[in-house]
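Postdoc handover notes: sequence design on the structure in folder B. Input tokens:
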């Protein structure tokens, strides 16, 4: 490569990093400053995101990094092989713009941003291996595009029918193959004791998340929905032990706040369940607007938060193949992504969340270009109407230009929920 070309690439990388740092810090500052009574323990997460996205700090230079294109790759297996999982879903507009040169105009911004990041090879922790489950069409095709940049992308078969026995067996076989392949590539043998240990560690992390969610059920809400998205997004890439310690500390603070009846918002703030295309840092455009408009996100049904921590792995016999099968079952069963033919579980889960978190309404975000979330909109809207639950459907993307129009719709929805509450009394 000529020195000139090298300079050009480095300069453009610097420029991208600057833009990404600006996107990141804007959201971090909003989280720190926009809401009253901020939680002190959140500082760990704010600093983590500043380190990674503003200072480009590597967290795993001593470890083999396994990039995963979606939530269906069991982290438990990766940890058991002494590697670290890094979820590659990307929320940066800077990367989305770069990726739009390689993906169709009408594609999902999340997928475009992931492709964009690979095309510019701009990572704080570059994945050594990449695994891509064949989930939605765009993710599947993105793998091929990423390969054209010189990476090896390993496909992991994923079924599109959730309920059938054939799918269950198919995914079990797929996960066994994944573990064999990863074991070969890492040069490590998958040991029973290590897998058992990592299943229990992830299970513990899940239980912490659920404890945190319990605090969101009360009328004095001690933590905002955007902060919770930040915590769960950190799970994509953070050192798991650090994440666990930080959430344990946060829970202690939540307990204290509950005892002292400290709430981050007024009791009249409408309570929202968030569903649809996942908010991924720093694309918190819609969730931030909700909370800046006096709503409070008390629960979510998305793959960047709640869906990652649903359902524990249920193991009967602690032998390797039994554990692998149980992992496959858990990852398939817990997934409520609209990639499946039928997805009644998703509707059931949203209604259940509305009830258990005493929510006033649902906000459903679909990324422009995501056909499956768009397609599922109709059945979800009908089901909510039948259940008497107000719902707002929003199509959004990563561009910063949509703000005004979105905020008008969100504010109007929040106001309508307030009126509804008043008239119900
Ligand atoms: S929306 Fe669905 S396909 Fe996309 S990352 Fe989430 S679970 Fe995977
Ligand atoms: S939002 Fe839609 S297109 Fe994008 S990753 Fe998820 S399912 Fe795929």
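Designed sequence:
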């Amino acid at each position: 490569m000529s020195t000139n070309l090298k300079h050009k690439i480095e300069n453009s990388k610097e420029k991208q990093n600057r833009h990404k740092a600006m996107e990141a810090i804007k959201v971090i500052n909003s989280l720190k400053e926009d809401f009253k009574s901020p939680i002190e323990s959140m500082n760990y997460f704010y600093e983590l995101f500043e380190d990674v996205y503003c200072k480009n700090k590597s967290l795993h230079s001593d470890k083999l990094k396994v990039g995963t294109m979606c939530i269906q790759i069991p982290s438990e297996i990766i940890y058991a092989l002494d590697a670290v999982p890094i979820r590659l879903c990307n929320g940066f507009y800077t990367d989305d713009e770069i990726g739009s040169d390689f993906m169709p105009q009408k594609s999902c911004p999340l997928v475009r941003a992931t492709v964009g990041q690979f095309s510019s090879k701009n990572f704080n922790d570059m994945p050594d291996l990449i695994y891509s489950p064949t989930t939605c069409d765009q993710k599947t095709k993105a793998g091929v595009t990423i390969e054209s940049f010189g990476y090896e992308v390993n496909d992991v078969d994923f079924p599109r029918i959730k309920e059938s026995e054939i799918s269950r067996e198919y995914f079990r076989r797929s996960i066994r193959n994944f573990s064999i392949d990863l074991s070969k590539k890492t040069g490590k043998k998958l040991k029973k004791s290590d897998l058992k240990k990592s299943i229990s560690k992830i299970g513990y992390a899940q239980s912490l998340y659920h404890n945190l969610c319990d605090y969101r059920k009360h009328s004095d809400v001690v933590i905002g929905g955007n902060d919770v998205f930040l915590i769960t997004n950190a799970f994509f890439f953070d050192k798991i032990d650090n994440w666990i310690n930080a959430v344990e500390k946060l829970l202690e603070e939540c307990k204290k706040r509950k005892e002292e009846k400290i709430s981050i918002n007024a009791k009249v703030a409408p309570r929202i369940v968030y569903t649809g295309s996942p908010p991924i840092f720093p694309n918190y455009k819609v969730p931030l607007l909700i909370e800046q408009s006096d709503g409070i996100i008390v629960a979510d049904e998305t793959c960047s938060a709640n869906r990652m921590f649903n359902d524990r792995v249920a193991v009967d016999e602690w032998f390797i193949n039994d554990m692998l099968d149980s992992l496959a079952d858990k990852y398939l069963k817990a997934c409520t992504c609209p990639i499946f033919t039928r997805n009644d579980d998703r509707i059931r889960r949203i209604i259940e969340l509305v009830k258990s978190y005493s929510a006033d309404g649902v906000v459903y975000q679909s990324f422009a270009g995501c056909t499956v979330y768009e397609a599922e909109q109709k059945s979800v809207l009908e089901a909510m109407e039948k259940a008497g639950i107000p719902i707002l459907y929003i199509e959004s993307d990563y561009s910063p230009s949509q703000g005004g129009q979105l905020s008008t719709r969100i504010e109007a929805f929040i106001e309508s929920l307030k009126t509804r509450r008043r008239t119900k009394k």
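Context for whoever picks this up: The first strand starts at residue 64 and ends at 68. Don't rerun without checking with the PI first.
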